[in-house]
Hints:
Elements: E1 34-37, E2 46-49, H1 51-70
Antiparallel strand pairs: 1-2
Bound molecules: zinc ion (ZN).
Residues 22, 24-25, 29, 49-50, 52-53 line the site of zinc ion.
Amino acid sequence: MPHSSAHFNAHNGDFEEPPPRCLQEGPDCEGEVEYHLNPDRDDFKTFPRCAYHQGKRLEQAEKNREYLSDVPPSWFDPEAAGERWSEDEY
Length: 90
Ligand SMILES: [Zn+2]
């Protein structure tokens, strides 16, 4: 059994780039693992994910965006939003 874990190429002395592995590698992994840019990051870093987990990641990015825009502004006051005490209850 030859020792091959490092994929050493004896011809030009280069190490072959190992294929990327999904960041969330697990039994759910599907499809090819590639480096993806995520829309909710602004540092332009790419992360290796399989097609399935990248799909999940994009869903999460979408939710993060919705969540951020759903935070009420600090000046929001429910009593000033038309929810005043009823005047004709007595
Ligand atoms: Zn995966």
